[in-house]
Amino acid sequence: QVQLVESGGGLVQAGGSLRLSCAASRSIFSIFSINAMGWYRQPPGKQRELVATITAGGETNYADSVKGRFTISRDNAKNTVYLQMNSLKPEDTAVYYCKLGGNPGYWGQGTQVTVSS
Q1: Which of 9, 47, 83, 105 is the most exposed place for a label (fewest CB within 10 A)?
Q2: How far apart are CA 104 and CA 36, in angstroms?
Q3: Contact 103, 50 (CB under 8 A)
């Protein structure tokens, strides 16, 4: 049963932008707005790392590597969280995942982002 679905990934040149979306399925609508959401990424051959988080109240936190370039936001009416990525760099290439809640939480299946130099 798929409960979080990411979309918006793709191939982009360095300096470009992408907007990722993560939509919750109906089965978890009731807990979406009361839980923190996060975006994580796993670069090729590396471990998964935190990119950004947003609390139920809208407070945000970012990894140093993306501060000033990425923006996380949420629309509780649409049960969706977004990641606006600007000024993309080749080192941003990774599979991006969204997560709902704490551990273990709910994870999406991931969306590939490839930034060419």
Answers
A1: 47
A2: 13
A3: no
Long-range contacts of the stretch 53-58 (C-beta < 8 A, 24+): 54/81
Tell me the residue type at 99: K
Gap between the Cα atoms of 99 and 13, Å rounded: 26
Alpha-helical (H) ranges within the chain are 29-32
Where are any strands of DSSP class E within the chain? 4-7, 10-13, 18-24, 37-42, 49-54, 60-62, 70-75, 80-85, 94-100, 106-107, 111-116
Q: Per-residue pLDDT tens for 39-89?
A: 999 999 999 999 999 999 999 999 999 999 999 999 999 999 999 999 999
